[in-house]
Amino acid sequence: MYEFIDTDESQTVGRLPSEAMNFNDTFLENIVPGYKTLNVIGRELAVTEVESYQLGIRDGRRHVYSRIPERELIVKYQLTAPDNESFRDRFNRLNIALFSEKDVQIWFNDEPEMLWTGSKSDVSEVPEGLNQVVGTFTIILNDPYKYTKSDATSVMWGSESITFQANYLMGNTGSGAVNLPIIIEGGAYWGSTMITFQNQSYLMGDDGTEVKPVEIYPTVEGLKVKPTIIIEGTGRGVWIKTRSDTINLGDFDNSVIEIDTKLFNITKNDLPMIRPMNDFYIYPGEPLFIQADDSDFTLTIRYPNRYL
After folding, report:
1. The pTM is what?
2. What is the DSSP string of 219-232?
3. How far apart are CA 262 and CA 222, in angstroms?
4. Residue 141 CB partners (closer than 8 Å, separation 6+)
């Protein structure tokens, strides 16, 4: 439950309202004297658009797809000033603070770990002839999701890497370092018949005549995410897969390959690498598959957790 804020009393210096908005790296309360966030509407349940069509004379409709449209946040604020001149000056500052030529980062005082991106759009009229007014403005979120601020934490079973000819460096970038189990299917052969971690031994398979993918379970909280994947080293016949999403990297030698699945961009040693890639997600509770022939590389996966 949020603390009640009396709009008739002056705000304590240095104390921010629970729902104070940090817009483009600054709280508005800290740059506009007399400004105070009263409440914010639109941060709770998100709207789902459902597309469907009628099939002949059958009852009901046939579902086609569901999507999350852009969202709007309505910020209710109070602005006070001792005189007319200060009143105009403070609105000038507020206009400057809220203007942006592109979407900017937004977060709220009661949820500092979550980042939105958006821009100010509509505003309400304010009462005339007063130096203490209450109004609203709207933040349009073209990306309807919010993301955790945390970035990669490269920790695996108490060690930075596990080596079995392919060295895997994994990190959960959403909610901190966690143990991410690896399942080695029978038939995978990486130059050894066994690897050991967490006091348990896992058989690697037979003589290597059949190579099956390695399953890795990143810890994804919330919704599916688009990761950044970095591979450093040498690989033969390397591919990465989740569900039906596949990235085939082929062969590479002593290279640094960075895959930005959000921007559909792959580089090798900072130069464009032309490889086919569709939408690629990591899904909560589902594995990411990696397969390669004779290879020696490290793998880093970075992603923020994503929520509505």
Report:
1. 0.70
2. ---BB-B--EEEEE
3. 17
4. 70, 71, 72, 73, 116, 117, 118
CA distance between the termini of the chain: 20
| Structure tokens that stand for 180 in this block | 């991410």
Residue 17 to residue 11: CA distance in whole angstroms: 9
Which of 23-27, 89-93, 172-176 is predicted with the least confidence, judged by mean pLDDT? 172-176
Q: What does DSSP assign to residue 27? A: E
The distance between the two most distant Cα atoms of the chain, rounded to a whole number of Å, is 86
Residue the block writes with tokens 């203490």: 132
Report d(CA 85, CA 42) in Å as an integer.
34
- Alpha carbons 228 and 230: distance in angstroms, whole number: 7
- Residue partners of 265: CB distance under 8 A and separation at least 6: 259, 272
Average pLDDT of the residues of the chain: 77
Q: Around Cβ 199, how many Cβ atoms within 10 Å? A: 6
Burial (0-12, 13-18, 19+ Cβ within 10 Å), 147:
buried
- Residue identified by tokens 């005082």 is 109
Closest CA to 94 of 169, 179, 27: 27
Write down the residue that tokens 């909610």 correspond to: 175
